[in-house]
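re: ur question from earlier - yeah i can do the single chain one, its not a big deal. heres the input i used so u can compare w yours
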Amino acid sequence: MHTKRILAFVGWMLAALVLLIACNQTSTPNPTASAASLTISAAASLKDALQEIKPLYAKQQPQVKLTYNFGSSGALQQQIEQGAAVDVFISAANKQMDALTQKGLLVDSSRKDLLKNELVLIVPQQAQNIQDFPDLANPKVKKIALGEPKSKVIGQ
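and the output i got, formated as tokens:
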């Protein structure tokens, strides 16, 4: 249920952005060129959700082609700073958004906090002794896996 709400929200935000871009066009419309394109640079952690949204969005907005560029938020920030043509940037952390705002590379009124990262604990179904993070200190726990902190925003 929570995932569906996030997908619906992101989908509506994309629709609103397309409408905003379409309303702000200053050139004379060309009746033969009705297709539009949106380039979305997004944190790699959003890849599955955004790929799931793409066909749903295409049904509602068939004239709009979505092009995704996934990567670490830091790498995407650098691409934008170097002039990459991006219509929508969805970062995994505020740090990159703040840096782009300070450099004047974001439209001031366009910044919206859509999502947040949250540290979660995932265990196998048969792991009955692990209910919360302090349980990881139990000597019976032999392996713990987590994302690489240098490339993943963890718990921010």
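Residues 34-110 form a domain with the D-Maltodextrin-Binding Protein; domain 2 fold (CATH 3.40.190.10). not sure if urs matches, ping me
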